[in-house]
Amino acid sequence: MKYIINTFIFVMFSFSLFAEDGSKLWLRYAPSETVYDFSRVTIDENTPTLEKALKELSIASQSFTGKDIEASKATDNSSLIIGTVKSKNIASIIPAKDFRGLGNDGYIIQTINKGGKQSTVIASNTDIGVLYGVFHFLRLIQTNQLPESVNIKETPKYDVRILNHWDNLDGTIERGYAGYSLWKWNELPNTLSPRYEGYARANASVGINATVLNNVNASPQILSKEYLSKVKALAEIFRPYGIKVYLAVNFSSPKELGGLPDSDPLNKEVIKWWNDKAKEIYSIIPDFGGFLVKANSEGLPGPQDYGRTHADGANMLADALKPYNGIIMWRAFVYNPSSEDRAKQAYLEFMPLDGQFRDNVIIQIKNGPIDFQPREPFSPLFGAMQKTPEMVEFQITQEYLGFSNHLAYLAPLFKETLDSDTYSNGKGSTVAKITDGTLRPHQRTAIAAVANIGEDTNWCGHHFAQSNWYAFGRLAWDHQLTSEQIADEWIKMTFSKDKNFVNPVKDIMLASREAVVDYMMPMGLHHIFAFGHHYGPEPWGDVPNARPDWMPWYYHNADSIGLGFNRTSTGSNAVSQYFSPLKEIYNDPSRCPESLLLWFHHIPWNYKMKNGRSMWDELCYKYDSGVQQVRGFRKTWEQMQPYIDEQRFSDVKSKLEIQSKDAVWWKDACLLYFQTFSKRPIASDIELPIHKLDDLKKIKLDMKHHN
Ligand code: GCW
After folding, report:
1. Which residue, among 693, 691, 667, has the nearest Cα to 528 in the 3D structure?
2. Residue 211 C-alpha to ligand 1 middle, in angstroms?
3. Is the distance from the beta carbon of residue 174 to the nearest atom of ligand 1 less than 6 Å?
4. In the chain, ranges of CATH 3.30.379.10 domains
5. Which pLDDT band holds residue 18 (cuts at 50, 70, 90)?
6. CB count in 10 Å sphere of residue 31
7. For domain 160-480, which architecture applies?
8. Is the pTM of this model over 0.85?
9. Which residue from 43, 65, 539, 543 lies 20 to 30 Å from 622 (Cα-Cα)?
10. C-beta separation of 105 from 209 below 8 A
C-alpha cells in the first residue's frame, strides 16, 4: 500500500512538473539554477495589496528554489526590503525627494549596501506601486536582466491602462475566441471562481489597472441592483491588485431599466436617474472607475435619438460621475450607411464638438478609421481634436486576424499606431505623445484594448495570443519598449530562456503580423473578410439588401482598371483629414507608403511599383509571401520540440497547420477573385492556386454574427 501511495505521489508530482497547459501564463517562475536569493524580506506595513506582493514573492521563491520567504519587520540580514514612502525602514534608506514624480503607480528598485551587506529595495508612494515593483523585480530575474547593482525608477506612461471585455451577461463573448466569459454572472456574488483572482494578478503583473467587465453593446441590466452586487464582488477581488472596475452602459438605460418615457440627456428626470444611479454605484463600489459608452453606433441608442449631440450625452453622464471622480470613455466608433466614405465619418461627427466635452470625458478612438483591420493608417481624429482628451482603443482579440487560430503577435501593430506622427503640433506629434499627455496635459490619460480572454484553460485560445495581452499591458506602461524587448521577455517567462528557442521563436513573432497582412489584406486592402463572423476571405461578398458599408466591394473597388479605394482629392478626399505633410503624401501615389497604397488610391493593375513590378504582380507576390512565411513558421516550430513541454508544443503545432491552410485559402481566394478583374496571369514563379474560385465561394462557415 505504502508503495502504491508513493508511486501515486510521484506520478502526480511529475505530472505537475511537466504538464504545461498554459494556465500559468507568463507567471510560471520556472526553477532556475542561478537565482538571486530574496527569501529574507523586510516589511513593516500591512495592507491587502502588500500581502499580495508578499504572496507573489513567496510563490516565486518557492518555485525558483524550493525555499519560501521569511518576512520580518527589521532590516537586519534582509535580502529584500519592500514598502511605501510611509514605511520607517524605507524612509531610513530612500530620501523623500526620490519619491517625487513617481505618482501613484511608479516604483524604485535599488541595490543598497548596509554594513557591507547588499540588499534590494523596492519602494513606492503606494502599496500598488510596490506590487508593480515586485512584479518587475521578478520579471528581471526571470529574464536574466537583474544586474549586480540595480537602480531603476519606473513610472507608467498612461494613468488608466484598461481592458475592454465584450462579454455578454449570458456568458457569451462578442468576438471572443477563448471560450465563454470568465465572469459567471449566474453564480456571482456567492460563488467566486479562483480565476477571478488569477485574472487580477496577471493584469497587475503587467500594470493593467482597469477593466470594463461587459460588452459595449451593453445590456441595461448591468446597472440593475442585482448585477451591481455581482460587480461589487468582482471589484473586491480585483481591488488589492490595483484594478478598478468600469462598466459599459446602454444610453437607453433610464428608459429600459428605469421605466422613464425616454432617455433624452436634457430631460431632468433622465439626469436625475443617472445621478441617482451614480450615487448607488459609488455607495457599493467606492473606487468605481466610470462608464464606457457606445452610442449611436451600429444601431445602439444615443443622444442623437433625441436630436442631441455626443457632447450632450457624454456631458450628462460626466456630470453624474464627477462628484466621485469617475470618468466617461465615449467611443468615436460611429458610421452610418450614407454616401460619405465610412473612413471619414467619425472625424466629421466629432470635430465640430471639439472643446465641448467636460474634462472627465475622454474620447476613445479605434486605432484606425475603419475597424481593427490587419493594417490601417491611424485614425485622423488623433491630434485633430485639440481641446479634447483622446485615447486609443486597440483590439487584442483577433476578430480580423484569424481568431485564436492564427499566430499574430500584435505589438508591432500597436506600436505602428502609437509611433505614427500625426503632425498635429508639428513634427514628432505621435499618437503616443498626444494621448499620453506629453503634448497635451490632461487630467487623466488612458489607453484601452479589447480583451482576448475567456475561460479556456490557457485563457486566450492560442498560447501565443497570451503575448498580445502581455504586450498591451507592457506598452500601456511604457510605449517606448520595443516589440522585440517585449517578445523576448514574454518568451523567456512563458516558455524557455534557452537561446536556441528564444531567438527563432522571437523571429516568428516579430514577422507574424506582417505575414498575416500579406496573406489576408496586403498593400492597404481592407474589409474583404467573410460577412458576419469575419473568419476567412470573401472579397466577392455581396449580401442582398445588406448595408453597402458592410460589403467588401465597397472597400476594394476592383474593376477592369484597377483596385483600391480612391480617398484622394479626386475621390472621397479622406486624405484631407490628415495634417500636412501627411495629406499631401497620402494623396500622391508615388509618395504614399506602398503598405497603404490601396487604402488611399484606386491603382491600375499595370501601375509600376517601386520595385519595378506591376501592381498585379506585386499583389501576387505579397499573397504568396504571406503563405511562405507561415510555412516557414511551421518548419521553425518543428525544431522547437526539444525545448518545451509536449502539450504546448503540439497545441501550437496544430494551430500553425490551420494557419498555414488558411493562408493558402486567403491567397487563392483573393488572387483568383481579383484576377477576374485584372485578367492577368498569376505571376509564374509563385505557388499556383490549388483551389477553384467557385469552390471557395461555396464555403460557408457555421458561425453566427450580426454583420
Ligand atoms: O468590430 C466591430 C465588431 C462588433 C463590435 C464593434 C464595436 C462590439 O464587429 O462586434 O461590437 O466593432 O467596436 O463596437
Report:
1. 667
2. 18
3. yes
4. 2-154
5. low
6. 12
7. Alpha-Beta Barrel (3.20)
8. yes
9. 543
10. yes
Total number of residues shown for the chain: 707
Beta carbons within 10 angstroms of residue 226's beta carbon: 11
Confirm or reject: Cβ of 335 under 6 Å from ligand 1: no
Q: Which CATH number fits domain 518-565+602-706: 3.90.1330.10, 3.40.50.720, 2.30.40.10, 1.10.760.10?
A: 3.90.1330.10
Name the residue at shortest CA distance from atom 9 of ligand 1. Answer: 707
Atom of ligand 1 nearest to the CA of 366: 13
Ligand 1: residue of 345, 371, 531 to mutate (most ligand atoms within 8 A of CB) is: 371
State the cell numbers at 176: 471572443
Instruction: Give the percent of the chain with pLDDT over 70.
Output: 96
Q: Is 175 in the pocket of ligand 1 (CB under 6 A)?
A: yes
Is there a contact between 196 and 241 (Cβ–Cβ < 8 Å)? no
CB 292 within 8 A of CB 247: yes
How many angstroms separate the CA atoms of 671 and 518, rounded? 12
Banded pLDDT at 32 (limits 50, 70, 90): confident
Q: Residue 55 has which C-alpha cell?
A: 504572496
The atom of ligand 1 lying closest to the CA of 294 is 14
Domain limits, CATH 3.20.20.80, in the chain: 160-480
Tell me: the pLDDT tens digits for 79-123? 999 999 999 999 999 999 999 999 999 999 999 987 788 899 999
| Contact residues for 305 (Cβ-Cβ < 8 A; gap 6+) | 251, 263, 264, 296
Q: Would the CB of 217 count as within 6 Å of ligand 1?
A: yes
Which ligand 1 atom minimizes the distance to the CA of 215?
A: 8
Please tell me the residue having the least CA distance from ligand 1 atom 12: 371
Span from the CA of 250 to the centroid of ligand 1 (angstroms): 15
Distance between CA atoms of residues 595 and 622, nearest Å: 11
All CATH 3.90.1330.10 domain ranges of the chain, comma separated, are: 518-565+602-706
122: β partners: 82, 109
Q: Is 533 in the pocket of ligand 1 (CB under 6 A)?
A: no
Provide the sign of the torsion angle of the four alpha carbons 551, 552, 556, 560, taken in this order.
negative
Out of 3.30.379.10, 3.90.79.10, 3.40.190.10, 3.40.250.10, select the CATH number for domain 2-154: 3.30.379.10
In what helix (H) or strand (E) does residue 86 lie, and over which residues does it extend?
Answer: none
Closest ligand 1 atom to Cα of 705: 10
First vs last C-alpha separation in the chain: 62
Annotated catalytic residues are 298, 371, 399
Q: Kindly report the protein residue whose alpha carbon is nearest to atom 2 of ligand 1.
A: 371
CA distances, 290 to each of 34, 160, 239 (Å): 45, 11, 15
